[in-house]
Amino acid sequence: MSQRMPANVPPPRGRRATALLTAVVEARKAWLAATVDVLHQRKSVGSAWLVGSLGRGSADPYSDVDLVVAVDDTTPQRVFDDPGAGLHLPGRVLFTRNKPRNAPAGGGYVTVCVELAALPVLIDLYLWPITTAALPTDGRLLLHRASPPPRTGLAFMPLMDRHRTPDSTGADPNHPSSILLLVQLAAKYLARGDRPRHVAITRHLAFPSGAEIVTLRQILDERVDQAATEVLRPAISAAHRLLDLVDSVTGDRLTRDGEPPTNAR
């Protein structure tokens, strides 16, 4: 699976940034291979596939993992309640964030943040009942047992809308895991130079519009650190490492004409 940086991603500044981006891509490949091995060992898993940028083949080093796992009716309820822990997925878990309304009907959903190459990587994990599961047009099959899943002419999001759970429960916007997730997404879009999505993410939880790296650091310190339990300290440290990387990639410490930016720390 080739994952060269697309043209819309600004080139990294310096060898260390390049090495980190290469390392996280390789670590993500290794995590996926280990995950396939784990899922093969669970008899209740019928198939699994990637959606999102990894499913479409347009992933870059900042891409999250969007993973759909189709399971049969022998799957215990505890697995639906916490798919990440229930499936025993590999990797060091930094935090999880539940958002039940993102699940397919009769299934489960959780965001799991794992540490890969010392950086935080988000895994959006969908547990889908095998009776309604279908491979979307933008999906990439990872494994199947006796026969592959049926294909659909729909892309993933329209398919989800057709099978979405009636549970409208969202995530707590003030929970430290929500702040961590939004900071990481804002940093990702900043690194890509995707200003509209970056601004949309920063507005989502009343961040300052278009928050730059120094503001994202302050948000971590002020809205996560003080509220966090000790178990979240590794997640906060990993988020700061991501911000350091994005700072280097975007040249946030130094403007193009060589003058320090106004928000430099």
Automatic annotation (TrEMBL):
Pfam families: NTP_transf_2. One of its GO terms (molecular function) is nucleotidyltransferase activity. Residues 38-77 form the Polymerase nucleotidyl transferase domain. InterPro entries: NT_sf, Polymerase_NTP_transf_dom. This is Polymerase nucleotidyl transferase domain-containing protein.
